[in-house]
Amino acid sequence: MNNTLHPPIIAPTAVEPVYFDDAKAAVKAVQKLYADATGFLRQHFKAIMAGGEIKGRYRAYYPQVMITTTTFAKVDSRLSFGHVAEPGTYRATLTRPDLFENYLEMQLGLLLKNHAVPISVGYSNTPIPLHFAMEENAHVEGSIEDRLQQPLRDVFDVPDLETTNDMIVNGESGLDPDGMRALSPFTAQRVDYSLARLSHYTATSPSMFQNHVLFTNYQFYMDEFLEFAKSMLKEPNSGYDALIEPGNVITTKAGTKGDPVAKLPQMPTYHLTAPNNSGITMINIGVGPSNAKTITDHVAVLRPHAWLMLGHCAGLRNSQSLGDYVLAHAYVREDHVLDDDLPTWVPIPALAEIQVALEDAVETVTGYTGFELKKIMRTGTVATIDNRNWELRDQSGPVHRLSLSRAVALDMESATIAANGFRFRVPYGTLLCVSDKPLHGELKLPGMATAFYKRQVAQHLQIGIKAMQSLKEMPLERLHSRKLRSFDETAFL
User: Fold this and answer.
1) What CATH number should be reported for the domain holding residue 74?
2) What is the distance between the alpha carbons of residues 203 and 162, in angstroms, rounded to a whole number?
3) How many C-beta neighbours within 10 Å does residue 370 have?
4) Regions in the chain scoring below 70 on pLDDT
5) 115 within some domain
6) In a domain, 37, yes or no
7) Distance (Å, rounded) from C-alpha 364 to C-alpha 490?
8) Is residue 3 part of a domain?
9) DSSP code of residue 393
10) Which residue range forms the structural domain that includes residue 94?
11) Contact, 63 vs 119, CB < 8 A?
C-alpha cells in the first residue's frame, strides 16, 4: 500500500459536461453518470473487502446540472417554481436519479421552457460518500476498519456536514464561492442522508413513498389505514395498485410477497401506492415535537405534494365535546425544536387549498354542512408544546398564554409539522380530534377510551383520505402556491 501522507486519488475517468435541450435526455445522462460513479466505488470497496490491495484514496463525484441565463426576461409570474429570478449561473448536485426521474424531468423541462437555455450535465466537485453509494439494504459482514487497517475516511469519502445541512432551504446559502446559486432546495448529500434515515425509521424503501403523506400519533389510525388499504386493493377501479408494509412487504391483487418485520420500526409506515407515486403514505410518528421534526426533515427531500396531521388533541373550550374536530388555521409554537431554523416570530399561515379540502372532506364524511358543521368542528388556533405533563405545573402561566392566543386545542406535533412544511415549501394542514378536556376535568376513562377510538378513528381517517384524494386532483401549480416561496427561491420545487 502507498503510505505517503497524501495517497493518490483514484477516480473514474473525467468527462466533459454535455449540453441538452431535452429534459428526458438530460436525466438519462445524469443517470449514466451516477451509475458509473457509484458503481466505481462499490467495485473498489468489494475488491478491498475481498483482500485486494489498497492503492490510494478512492473517490467519485455526484453528477450535477447547471444552467446559465443572461436575461431578466419575464416568465409566467403565476408559477412558484420552474424558473430563476435573475441572470446568473445556477446548479444542483443530484443523487438517485432513478428515484427522482419524474421529478427531475419536470423541473428541467420547466427550466428549458421558461428560459430557453441549454442544461449542462456533468460531474460536480462534491464527492459521493461510500455509505451513500451502497445499494439499498446492503449489508457488510464484520468490521470495515479491521479489514482496512486504517480509518475508512482515509480510503473512501464519508458524509460531510458542510454539504449535509439545510442552508439552502433556510435561506442562508447565498452565492457559492465561485459565484453560482442553488437550483435545488437540497444538496445531493443532504438528500442521501435523509433517504438513509427514512429506511431506518420506517423500515420501508424511500422509493415506496407516495406524494400525499398522512401523519398521526396513534397506532389505531395505522391499523385502520391498513384495513382501508386492503379493501382498496379488492376494488378493481380504486386506482391503487399495492400496499407496502414495514419490511417492504408488498401486497397486490395477485397476493403478498415478503416477510413482515419481527419488530415494528420506530415510525411504522404504510404506503398505499398508485401510478406515479400518486397514492397515500401514512406514518405513525409517535409522540412529541422531536419526532415530528425528525420525520418531516427527511420526508421533505422526496418533495411530496402535501402532508397532513391527523391526531388527537386536548380541547380547550367548554363548548367542545370529545370527538369534535379542530381544523387548525393558526399555530402557537412552544415546541422549540425549530427555533434555530424557523424563529417563532415567523407566522405559519393556513393554506386555503388545504383548508378547503379538509373542510369539504369533513362535510362529505359526517353529513354536516354549513352552520350545522359548527356542532362538531371548530376552526381555530392549535398550540403545540414540548411538555406532555404541563398540567402538573402551576397552570396559571400556560393557561393565560393559551387564552391570549385564542387557542382551541393543544397537542405536541401539529405546529411542528406545519412549520416544517412551511420551511420546506411542502403544503401542510392539520385536522385534530378532541380526545380529552383537561381544563374542564374531562378525561377519558378506560371504557370511554375504547368506545371513543372505535367510533372516531375510522371516521377521522376517512376524512383525511378524502381530503388527500381531493388534493390529488388539484393542478400542481395551484397546490404548490407562491405563498410558500421566499424572496430568493430555488427553481426546483
Assistant:
1) 3.30.1730.10
2) 28
3) 7
4) 1-5, 139-143, 146, 388-397, 438-454
5) yes
6) yes
7) 38
8) no
9) S
10) 9-186
11) no
- Cα–Cα distance, 401 to 334 (Å, whole number): 11
Concatenated DSSP letters for 114-149?
HH--PEEEEEEEEEPPHHHHSPTT----S-HHHHHT
Whole-number Cα distances in Å, 408 to 69, 228, 238, 389: 50, 30, 37, 18
Residue type for 308, please?
A: L
The whole-angstrom separation of Cα 278 and Cα 81 is 20
DSSP 181-200: EESSSS-HHHHHHHHHHHHH
* Cβ-contact 308, 467 below 8 angstroms: yes
Residue 379, domain CATH = 3.40.50.1580
3-state secondary structure of 242: strand
In one letter, which amino acid is 276?
N
Helical (H) or strand (E) element with 62: strand 61-69
Cα–Cα nearest to 462, from 366, 382, 380: 366
Determine the Cα–Cα distance for residues 402 and 381; give it in Å rounded to an integer: 9
**pLDDT at site 23:** 98
Question: 80 is written with which cell numbers?
Answer: 412558484
Question: How much is the CA Rg of the chain, to the nearest whole Å?
Answer: 24
For 390-426, the pLDDT digits (tens) are: 666 666 567 778 888 898 999 999 999 999 999 999 9
The C-alpha atoms of residue 323 and residue 453 are separated, in whole angstroms, by 9
List the one residue out of 347, 365, 325 whose CA is nearest residue 468: 365
pTM: 0.93
Residue among 453, 429, 345 at smallest CA distance from 379: 429
